[in-house]
């Protein structure tokens, strides 16, 4: 048995599970061609503002439709993209595709925010902040409307580099979110330094809230921690009404999860928005 990372590094192939749950080795070229050949699609998952009780954001999640493999989950191809250097192309593609939908969404909801996932593997690339910023020019989007998500573990791969890049992105006006918070191994010393505007609590804690009192207490502590560091706090993985109610009462700012809505094709998300005048 090959561990997933091993397979990708040595042969530039990744193990992907087909619709029949059979492991399939996917070569680098297949993913490369999918990125250039329009086989990727942006899904958007709404983010609910718990104070205003309305949708004020959405997270862009990549989907890969392969004729043979069916729909491939990002958990199966982000790693391959990272190990083979395709991740920058993928991210550029995702950013461009989702910004187009943000522009449309903002016609209905003027303060709509877009969250995009960044991989640390692209941090070392030259002018990455400039590249991200110039993608926005094309769609006349302001950095204030975009939140860049980086997982806690990603930040810790090279904390000094992450700090430099995120500071430069924050200086340009982007929101910065620490994704999957609590599941990784960041130290509080670094948390204090990162210029993050948002803390996104990992879904493993949120999904357990309904059945486990200790998870509720942990989430409560993470909400307080984020607020004490002047960050907005988002809970991901909200799967039931009880959890949503608890989060609202505990002062969590925003929520995302299947109970609110599943990720959906970006155009469907935009079409579902009610016009708001504010
Ligand atoms: P993430 O950024 O933490 O995104 C949230 C993931 O949780 C998504 O999985 C979403 O579909 C899933 N999710 C949302 N609500 C619920 C819920 O209530 N219950 C459960 N069980 N899951 C929920 P998805 O779309 O499969 O993406 C997986 C990961 O792949 C993402 O995790 C993100 O780290 C990465 N990813 C996706 N698209 C991109 C991309 O374009 N670029 C990069 N660098 N990473 C991406
Ligand atoms: Mg994310
Ligand atoms: Mg997450
Ligand atoms: Mg995740």
UniProtKB/TrEMBL annotation:
A GO MF label: cyclic-guanylate-specific phosphodiesterase activity
Residue ranges of domain EAL in the record: 24-277
Protein name in the entry: Diguanylate cyclase (GGDEF) domain-containing protein
Source organism phylogeny: Bacteria, Pseudomonadati, Pseudomonadota, Gammaproteobacteria, Lysobacterales
Full-sequence range covered: 137 to 414 of 414
């Amino acid at each position: 048995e090959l561990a997933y990372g091993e397979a990708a590094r040595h042969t530039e192939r990744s193990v992907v599970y087909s619709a029949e749950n059979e492991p399939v080795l996917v070569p680098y070229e297949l993913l490369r061609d999918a990125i250039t050949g329009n086989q990727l699609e942006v899904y958007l998952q709404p983010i609910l503002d718990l104070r205003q009780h309305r949708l004020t954001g959405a997270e862009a999640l990549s989907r890969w439709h392969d004729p043979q493999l069916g729909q491939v989950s990002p958990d199966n191809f982000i790693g391959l993209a990272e190990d083979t250097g395709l991740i920058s192309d993928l991210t550029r593609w995702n950013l461009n595709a989702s910004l187009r939908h943000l522009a449309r969404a903002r016609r209905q909801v003027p303060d709509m925010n877009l969250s995009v996932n960044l991989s640390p593997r692209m941090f070392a690339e030259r002018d990455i902040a400039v590249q991200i910023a110039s993608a926005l020019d094309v769609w006349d989007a302001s950095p204030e409307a975009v939140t860049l998500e980086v997982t806690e573990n990603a930040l810790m791969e090279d904390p000094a580099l992450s700090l430099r890049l995120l500071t430069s992105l924050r200086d340009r006006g982007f929101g910065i979110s620490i994704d999957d918070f609590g599941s990784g191994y960041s130290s509080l010393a670094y948390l204090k330094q990162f210029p993050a505007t948002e803390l996104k609590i990992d879904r493993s804690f949120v999904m357990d809230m309904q059945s486990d009192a200790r998870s509720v207490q942990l989430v409560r502590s993470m909400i307080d921690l984020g607020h004490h560091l002047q960050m907005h706090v988002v809970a991901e993985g909200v799967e039931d009404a009880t959890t949503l109610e608890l989060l609202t009462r505990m002062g969590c700012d925003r929520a995302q999860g299947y109970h609110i809505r599943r990720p959906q094709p970006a155009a469907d998300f935009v079409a579902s928005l009610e016009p708001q005048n504010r």
